[in-house]
Amino acid sequence: MTQSENSSRMDSDQVFHDAIHGSMELPPLCVEIINTIQFQRLRNIKQLGLCYYVFPSASHNRFEHCLGTCYLAGKMVRHLKQQNPDLEISDRDILCVEIAGLCHDLGHAPFSHVFEGFINEYRKENGGEEWEHEDASCKMLEHLFKENPRIKVERNDIDFIKDLITGKPEIYRRPKFLYQIINNKSYNIDVDKWDYLARDSHFLGIGKSFDHERMIKMSRVIGNEICYRDKTVDNILDMFYSRYRLHKTAYQHKTVLLFNKLLGDALKSADEHLKIFEKVDDMKKFTYFTDSILEEILKNEDNRNLRVARNKLKDIINRSYRKCFPLTKRLRFL
Question: Catalytic one among 65, 133, 143, 212?
Answer without folding.
Answer: 133
